[in-house]
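Support request, please re-run this one:
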Amino acid sequence: NIFNNTCSLGIESQLYLIFPFVFWLVGSKRGDSKNNKFFVVVLSIISIASLVNFVYFYPTNHPYSYFLIISRFREIASGSISFLILQTKIYKKIFLTKLPTFPILTILVGLFWMPTIYAPISTLLTIILTNLLILNIGKGDYIYKFLTNSQLKFLGLISYSLYLWHWGILSLSRWTIGITWWT
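Re-run finished. Output below.
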């Protein structure tokens, strides 16, 4: 399918329809820590349900577990949970001694080569490690300096556009001129 990789746009669209409703339902208000804690709890419960859904359906129905927000909500909600945790006083007390970021990043990159049979495990580990990296990285950290150098920032700026275009071009090339080393 020439538009196969646009599933991320579909998941984002589904999120934009669901997330504001969840936010409104829990009564979150800007700066209200009590409601933010409740929001984190609600997001965590929905995320766990989403993970269970993904793990249950992954072996038998890949498209369902990959293309629908029901199975992917946990990935997006985890970023919101991390953001809300970063805003708390508890975070500042607990994470005074931060975890080292190099092992976290190394394991995270190592997950790219994990066989697809372990997708449920690698997906969960990717979410956990990405959030641990976000929660523990600081401006003085050499991993922060590496990830924010100008070449990687440029690659990050163009990566989503490349992602959206590459699959369509490869699909059209395969159907027309073929895919060889020179093409």
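The CA atoms of residues 105 and 141 lie 12 Å apart. The mean pLDDT is 83.
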